[in-house]
Give the backbone structure.
Amino acid sequence: MIYLNFTDLNEETQERLIASSKEDVKEKYGKDIMNYATKHNTSLDKMLDEEALRNLYSYKYIFNI
């Protein structure tokens, strides 16, 4: 779970969440994504970014207002 303040939803926080999600994706699916990107001749960074954004929807957020 990720704890956020309502006033903490600025650009810096969004970048921090995406970076955290990207690390999670690398740990869970890094090898599979790398194999897919190599096989289909696509950018690994682009694939990681897309999966990181999808991964954000699996997080549970708690907002303190």
